[in-house]
Design brief:
It contains 13 helices and 17 strands. The chain is an alpha/beta fold. The protein folds into two domains: about 200 residues, Quinone Oxidoreductase, Chain A, domain 1, CATH 3.90.180.10; about 130 residues, NAD(P)-binding Rossmann-like Domain (Rossmann fold). Helix 9 links the parallel strand 13 and strand 14. Helix 5 crosses helix 6, helix 5 packs across helix 11 and helix 8 packs parallel to helix 9. The longest helix is centred in the middle third of the chain and has 13 residues. It is globular and about 60 Å long. Bound molecules: zinc ion (ZN) (2 copies). One zinc ion (ZN) binds next to helix 5.
Amino acid sequence: MKALVFLEPEKMEIRDVPLPKCPPGGLLIEVKACGFCGSDMRTYKSGHRRVTPPWIIGHEVAGVVREVGDGQNRFKEGDRVAVSPPVYCGKCWYCRRGIFYLCINQRELAQHWPGGFAEFQAIPPEALAFGNVASIPEGLSFEEAAISEPAGSVINSQEMADVGLEDTVVVIGAGPIGCFHVETARARGSALVMVVDVLEERLELARRFNPDHLVKSKPDSSHVEKIIELTNDMGASVIVVACPAPEAQQEALRMAAKGGRIILFGGLPKDKSEVALDANIIHYEGLHLIGATSFSPKHQEIALSLISSGRIHASEYITHDLPLERFQEGIDALLAGTALKVVFRP
Ligand SMILES: [Zn+2]
Ligand SMILES: [Zn+2]
C-alpha cells in the first residue's frame, strides 16, 4: 500500500509498504482522511521521542472498516469510523475511576502502532477496548470526522474549567485549537468570546468562527489593557493559552478577573518550559491554573456530536484537503500561516 513515511526531521516520503494485517480482535480500516496535527508538525520538524523512523505517523483518522478481526463484534465491514490516538490501560487508578485522560499507562496510535498517513491502518484490539474508535454520524464527511480528535481535547479542558453562561473567555492563539475553543465556549453558553493572536493572517482565519472580538497582540502588551477594557475593567473569567509562548502564560495572569481560570492548553518548547509566573497574582486574585491535554472517549463522542449538529463548523477549519502525495503543499501552507487545518486523503 501507499504510505507517507517519516524518515528524519524535515524528511517524509511516499513509499510502497506492506499492507498491514488485521489483528485478531481488531480492525483493518481503509483510511479516507487523516488530519495533519500540530504534533505531527513538531515530529516533522524535530522528531519525536516515541517515534523511531522510518515510521508512519498521522493520528486524526477517519475511514471505513474493511476487515474485522476474530472475536471483534462492535464493528462490521463497511462501517464508517473515526479513530483518535489515545489508548488507555483500563486498569490504573485513574482508569478505574473513569478519568481516562490521566491514564498513567497511556499509549497512542501512530506512536506505539503505525498511524494513518497510509491507505490502510490496523486498529489493535486494545484501541477498541480502551480507546477511541467511534461511528461517524450520518451526514458527516470523513474529513469533518477526522478533525474530531483535537476538538475532543478542547472539550475536555473546558469541562475541567467549567466554562459556562457568565464567562468572558479569552483565547490566546488563533490556530485551529484556538478556534475550537471559540466554538466550544460558545456552545457552552459563554457571554463573551475574544481571540488574541500576534499574526493578522491567523486572526483573519479565526474571524469565520464569529468571536466577539479579535485582538492583535503587540510587543508593548497593549492587548492586555484591551482585554481588561472589553471586560468592563474586570478582566476575563477564563483564559485559554492555546499557543506555545511562555509570554502568553504570563500575560494570561494579567488579563484574568479575580477567581479566573486559566487553561494551559499549549505545551511549551522543551527549553522554554520554565516560566516565571507571578505567584502573588495567583494568590491574591484567587486564580486557578488548569493544565490540560488529552481526553476521554466520551469527549470524542461529544466532539462528533457538536460537529454533526453544526455547533462546531468542522468544514470551515479545513483550508487544505489534499491527496496524500501532495503532503508538502499542506506542510508549507501551515508553515506560512495560511492554513488552518490540513487533511490528507491517502
Ligand atoms: Zn492531533
Ligand atoms: Zn490507565
